[in-house]
Amino acid sequence: MRYIQVPLLLLLGSVVLMTSCHSRSGKKEYVVGLSQCMLDDAWRQTMIREVEIEASMYDGLRLEIRNADTNNQQQIEQIRELIGMGVDVLIISPNESAPLTAVAEEAYRAGIPTVITDRKIDSELYTTFVGANNYEIGKDAGLYAAAHLPKGAVVLEIWGLSTSSPAQERHIGFTDALMGRSDLSLIKLEGEWRYDTTSVRIARMPLPEKIDFVYAHNDMMAIAAREFFVRRDPVEGEKLHIIGVDAVPGAGLQAVADGQITTSFLYPTGGAQVIKAAMQILRGDSVPKYIPLSTSQVNAGAARTSLLQSERIENYQQQIEAQRSRLDGMFTQYHFLQNSLLIISVLMIGFVILTLYAFFINRKMKQTNQALRETNRKEEEQRKKLIALNAEIKEVTAQKLQFFTNVSHEVRTPLTLILAPLDRLIGLMQDSPYLPDLQLIRKNADRLLRVINQILDFRKIENDQEELKIREVEMVNFTREVMSYFDSMAQVRQIQYRFLSESKICRVWIDTDQMEKVLVNLLSNAFKFTPENGVIEVALHEDADRVRLQVRDTGVGIKPENLPYLFDRFYTEHRTTGTGIGLHLAKQYLEMHHGEIAVQSRLGEGTTLTVTLRKGKAHFSEKVVQEMQISPYAYEASQLDDTEAQELLNRSYAYPILIVEDDEEVRAYLEKELQEQFPVVAVANGVEALAVLERGEDISLVLSDVMMPEMNGFELCRAIKTNLSYSHIPVILLTALTDERQRLYGVARGADGYIQKPFDIRYVKVKIIRLFEEQKRLREQLLRKLQENRLLIAEPEKAENIDDQFLRRLLARLEEVYTDSEFNVERLSDTLGLSRGHLHRKVKELTGTTPVDFLRNFRLAKAAELLRGHTLSVSEVAYQTGFSSPAYFTKCFKAVYGVIPKEY
After folding, report:
1. Which residues are CB-contacts of 786 (< 8 A; sequence separation ≥ 6)?
2. What is the pLDDT of residue 738?
3. In the sheet that 546-553 helps form, which strands lie side by side, from edge to edge?
4. What is the largest CA-CA distance in the chain?
5. Within 283-299, where are the H helices?
6. Is 582 strand, coil or helix?
């Protein structure tokens, strides 16, 4: 049944996917915000009607309209509300220019395309302005008035809102046209665009007996003026020339046709034009800074014609909207019938496929069981071989070393083959009469390693490549730990070896690696020149701002004439011993710490070397300081318990390791040692390693040298980490290179570990084991996230590698197809660009499960999410997540979550 669930889930899931595909295929919706200064006059109502008609011509366009009721503050708040909504385009018809300028600029600076219409603002920070030229309208009205005004005429000009740009421009245009008529008298009345305001103010205003001409800035104020003058004098009131501006249906246009207004000048609303401009912006087309609207004079005849046309257009629009509603209903019915037919067809085909698939899976299960039994038998044989190999450890003889000062790789690699087997022999031969000889070999190998390291450190100092890593250290424990390196030597030579400290705790900021080398060098010289039964004493003194560390011995001493040269390069007191760079390096390291070293010595009595370090960290550059918490036992090596490490090394692991090493002896040694815990494959260079991976061999980790012919370790690491088929395989580099920049280069290439030669084979093994454990922990964490349905949640500040990208692609693909019954592992591998074998190994390494099990757990996580919503029954959840039956769903759910769905 575990195999049959896959086609059933995919089949039933496809039904859900097809029925929901219509709802998922909707286009992007655009939101256009419109802020109107008022909506209680016929002109603006006509504009809104034109805006709605034009917007209905575009799919996916939604309007958000706000009415400010001529209140500046209310309009500012409404515009900010639209900005907060994140509208795609903002259209503003400002009540007044100056108060609305700042908020319009705010919208424009917020990245919202801003269209200004009707009235302008006191700024150029907008996308485009749509409107008629109010100055030209005023000028046309003035020219018309000049042609009809007698000499010495009195003109009443009824203003709109005096602080709005249309009123100001219509007045300027009107007066400019009458500049040649100095005989005229002009009376101003502010009607604020409103019929009722004009009616009240004109009745209260002391007007001359005779008014020859009335120019109103809109038709509604012109109608109010006509009614006033007719009431005052019916005969003269009917004859009076009254002109207005707007000429929109339902108000001014009707008044012109009825003779209530002598003539009007068309002021288009621009409703259709602002929507067209908004759509141009949304499509990414360029729009001009100013979109002018044409105007004209409208007399009674033209008004009647326009009214008839408007009525017809209104009827046509109603018919179009009715037809559109009917079409939408027909499309809905069509999609329903289409989906129903697809569902029925899929169910019929799926039934046939499931029947054949059930037969195939039954046979496949038998073959799989047989293969599992064979695998178990081979693993048991392999385990017995590893036990036998572990019992047959052979004695490894030390190889003669040839010191090359300019090639560290050729020296450190043989040292690896000396030190690592030697440690094993010493551990196995504790009761052997040869143990002192082995310990002597170990001591001199360590000495050789120290000499090599000193030469390498000397090179770094000379080339300015040595970098500090400063952190706070507890100096008492640190000194005792370094002193413990020489405990056995002191016992053998019966030297009184002691440590004196005035302080129990002394904290100093140092580079622990460099200071360890300094102290080891001083102690090494003390033991070298102190006879048996002598005294070597280390004393730590702490002052207010200094720490002094003294190494005193009762050795042969130094001649006074040689003391000034003691810290020079290559200088040795005794020509036959030493390299002459140890104390020079110590002085260089202390100078990097802004510290000092001094010597006092008497020939035949002994020598005292004093190291002085400054307290605090202010004298160091911030880039070299590492803030780390101090552990009081950080350097008490004798107290460290290695039981856990021994337990790890006593186990066997089924993770195959690919060893890549060009040196035959190192390769043979690594292969022999690692075979005790792991299956091993060994090759000589990077090209052969890639060939092994391309063949699809089961490899869990690559352990590679860096310096190799044909393809070096850096190139191999890069090739592995950039190939999707095996980028999940960890890579550890073994190298004799000591430059920190080379280590950084290797890590940047994707290396998961970097171990220097000579290395402790136990450290290499523990490093590998811990790396596998970390991978296991990450797999378990991933499965927990899968059960909690949190896998697709993005993690900020996390850099994704190629495996993270692959996993995200896999999850995104499963999110799309987990309900598709016909989607199987073969199609998944084609989609992701991997063979089925590579896909199986990669998903197994990254998640700990097969692709089939991972898909099942993915569906269970979706089911758990639905169950937490408490809106669906268990049966509904089972079917919606693609399970064949509620009973099977319950069984799978309990196996993963430990409870049945009803109890979840």
Report:
1. 854, 857, 858, 861
2. 58
3. 496-501, 535-542, 546-553, 606-614, 596-602
4. 144
5. none
6. helix
What burial class does residue 853 get, using C-beta atoms within 10 Å of its C-beta: 0-12 exposed, 13-18 middle, 19+ buried?
A: middle
| Residues 581/513, Cβ–Cβ less than 8 Å | no
Confidence at residue 752, expressed as pLDDT on a 0 to 100 scale = 84
Instruction: Confirm if 518 and 583 have CB atoms less than 8 A apart.
Output: no
- State both tokens at 708: 């190799």
* Structure confidence at residue 389 (pLDDT): 72
Q: Which of 721, 904, 683 is nearest to 800 (CA)?
A: 721
Q: In the chain, what is the straight-line distance between the N-terminal and C-terminal CA atoms, in Å? A: 24
Which residue carries 């002994």 as its tokens? 606
Name all contacts of 626-629 with Cβ < 8 Å and 24+ positions apart. Answer: 626/469, 626/470, 626/471, 627/471, 628/471, 628/472
φ, ψ for residue 33, nearest 5 deg: -95, 135
Say what the pLDDT of residue 190 is: 93
Alpha-carbon dihedral 621, 627, 632, 638, rounded to 10 degrees: -80
Do the Cβ atoms of 123 and 101 come closer than 8 Å? yes
Distance between CA atoms of residues 866 and 778, nearest Å: 26
**Could you tell me which of 701, 695, 707, 696 has the C-alpha nearest to residue 661?**
707
Measured from the Cβ of residue 149, the count of other Cβ atoms closer than 10 Å reads: 19
Taken in order 94, 96, 98, 99, is the CA torsion positive or negative? Answer: negative
Residue 114: predicted pLDDT: 95
Spans of the chain below 50 pLDDT: 1-4, 6, 10, 15, 17, 19, 21-25, 394-407, 575-578, 631-638, 792-798
Q: Report pLDDT for 792.
A: 47
Calculate the alpha carbon distances from 783 to 2, 573, 801, 838, 896 in Å.
19, 66, 19, 20, 10
293 Cβ contact partners less than 8 Å away, ≥ 6 residues apart: 130, 131, 132, 268, 270, 273
Q: Which amino acid is at 556?
A: V
Q: Per-residue pLDDT tens for 779-801?
A: 677 666 655 655 544 444 445 56
Please state the pTM of the whole predicted model: 0.37
What pLDDT is stored for residue 450 in this prediction?
Answer: 67
Cβ atoms 765, 744 nearer than 8 A: no
Q: H or E segment at 292? A: strand 290-293
DSSP string, 667-712: HHHHHHHHTTTS-EEEESSHHHHHHHHHTT---SEEEEESS-SSS-
SS3 471: strand
Task: Return left, alpha or beta for 579; rule: phi > 0 is left, psi -120 to 50 is alpha, else beta.
Answer: alpha
| 78 Cβ contact list (under 8 Å, min separation 6) | 35, 66, 68
| Token pair for 403 | 């010191």
CA distances from 872 to 10, 24, 792, 864, 878 (A): 21, 21, 23, 11, 10
Q: Could you give the residue ranges of the DSSP H alpha helices within 572-642? A: 582-592
Dig out the tokens for 549 from the structure.
């560390």
Calculate the alpha carbon distances from 494 to 444, 490, 532, 660 in Å. Answer: 20, 6, 6, 47
- Alpha carbon distance 450, 442 (integer Å): 12
Residue 132 Cα distances to 52, 121, 305, 842, angstroms: 20, 15, 22, 67
Q: Name the pairing type of β-strands 297-298 and 263-266.
A: antiparallel
Q: The sheet that has 30-36: what strands, in order across it?
A: 61-67, 30-36, 89-93, 114-117, 128-132, 290-293
Beta bridge partner(s), residue 260: none
Identity at 402, one-letter amino acid code: Q
